[in-house]
Amino acid sequence: MRQIKACLFDLDGVIVDTAKYHYIAWKELASNLGFEFTEEDNERLKGVSRMTSLNILLEIGGITLSDEEKHRLAEKKNENYRTFILKMQPDEILDGAKEFLQELKAKGIKIALGSASKNAMTILERLELTELFEAIIDGTKVTEAKPNPEVFLKGAEALNVDPSECVVFEDAEAGVEAALAGNMKCVGIGSPVVLGKANLVIDGLHQMTYEKLMELN
């Protein structure tokens, strides 16, 4: 069995909770279009790209738009969302995330980000975490959305490690499926019911240690 050499992290729901900001921005967009967008509806947007999210939102509202109009709305939503993330502070890092990243770095484990977010760099800079990542693969560098493993395979390639030597940390079912499809181990963060396919499911990175990581070997 191959030794674990690298960890790849999703961003939203794993290192930071930007879901609330996404939800407010999507809810506002739906309201402007004349329908209600609930927290339950928002669950369907977890881990998927901006345009796919917009298509789900429009489907909920029973609205059909041209591609041009869709792009305009997606941009509007992103502008709203960015007003929130540009005010983010390092104290918004989820419990235990920074400590675990620092522990991995101290133990010589390579670290990459694998996120669908096109705002990942902005968020990492606001949280003062950029220097902990050796590679950042975000929505600007991939064409395929999870559960396609592209984002994680590119992360492994950027770190110069074999996919089988990587462990992915994910909070979305599509992300867990992407990790497994890429021949990587996966730690799910959240509900065992939703993330049951992962090799290990925890509540958050505060429950993770280097020793626990090595047990996945």
From TrEMBL:
NCBIfam families: bPGM, HAD-SF-IA-v3, PGMB-YQAB-SF. It is an enzyme of class 5 (isomerase). Binds 2 magnesium ions per subunit. The active site is at D10 (proton donor/acceptor), D12 (proton donor/acceptor). The record marks S115, K146 as: Important for catalytic activity and assists the phosphoryl transfer reaction to Asp8 by balancing charge and orienting the reacting groups. Mg(2+) binds at D10, D12, E170, D171. Its cofactor is Mg(2+). Belongs to the HAD-like hydrolase superfamily. CbbY/CbbZ/Gph/YieH family. It comes from Carboxylicivirga sediminis. Its EC number is 5.4.2.6. It comes from the Bacteria. The keyword Cell membrane does not apply. GO terms for molecular function: beta-phosphoglucomutase activity; magnesium ion binding. It catalyses: beta-D-glucose 1-phosphate = beta-D-glucose 6-phosphate. Keywords: Carbohydrate metabolism, Isomerase, Magnesium, Metal-binding, Phosphoprotein. One of its GO terms (biological process) is carbohydrate metabolic process. InterPro entries: B-phosphoglucomutase_hydrolase, Beta-PGM, Beta-PGM-like, HAD-like_sf, HAD-SF_hydro_IA, HAD_sf, PGP-like_dom2. Substrate binds at residues 10-12, 26, 45-50, 53, 77, 115-119, 146. This is Beta-phosphoglucomutase.
